[in-house]
């Protein structure tokens, strides 16, 4: 039990460090809130009281330790509890007894605690900097929101690859504050040109960012790029306009559809280049499940997509889909052969 408790305490501390870093600037991490979420997820645990005691002790110890380093602001709860309280509770629970010295059961203690504020802490600027440096050294993605505010579009798109949707939204908002919508569109579309998996990954992110630009000047930039012959930029612009309600009347639907198929192959090529067949198949099936019946009818014509990786992507799908859909896998292999013969 002592060894298991030590491992659990370490896991709790690691989890709290992650929650601290993920919290927005100046936001408090409240022990009661975190524990309540954990309890909801494991309400039937027989060891719940043990976990509560370990969690309270871990939170207090981590907060006080980081405060000494200047890494967090720490505010102990207003219930007057000391660090020994949760540890005493742990020993009592392990012995099958009620909380010592209180004369009340754990359930009653929970009701009483609802009237108190628990421990809480938040990172200082020094703490956020130090924690990010530590995470980066450990190989853990640790985005620093705002670091790309003045970067060029290509650097922004490359950096956003490791961001969550919410982090991406906030980073893009900060980036757009430093330039006009038209300049942003020009930079993003310029960054969409190029060959290889990195360029394909940038295009996938750029399309998401461009879809959020409603400024008429940005839409004019998109229409100009859609009429160009710059591979990558042309397809991203056309597909973005095709999905924009204010721009549908200004773009041939067939052009937008062709651009969408090109970008489908383009996005899947990233997995082919990294030899991740399982991810390739999963991504294709997810895309397939959200498309119309018209797309299903176009599978046999995917060989016509004039993308450098078309034949390779279709061949990999033909092999990877054998276990999921043998008929579709056969159609993919046939399309791959036709794509090879076209070259």
Q: How would you summarize this macromolecular structure in one to three sentences?
A:
The protein is mostly helical and 343 residues long.
Question: Which percent band covers the strand fraction?
Answer: under 5%
Q: Average the pLDDT over all residues and give the rounded result.
A: 79
| Largest β sheet strand count, sense and barrel closure | 3 strands, antiparallel
| Total beta-strand segments | 3
Gap from first CA to last CA: 66 Å
How many alpha or pi helices? 17
Flag low-confidence runs. Answer: 93-113
Order of helices and strands: HEHHEHHEHHHHHHHHHHHH
Provide the gyration radius in Å. Answer: 27 Å
Shape: globular
**Lateral arrangement of strands in the main beta sheet:** 1-3-2
Oligomeric assembly = single chain
Helix content: 55-70%
**Helix-strand category:** mainly alpha
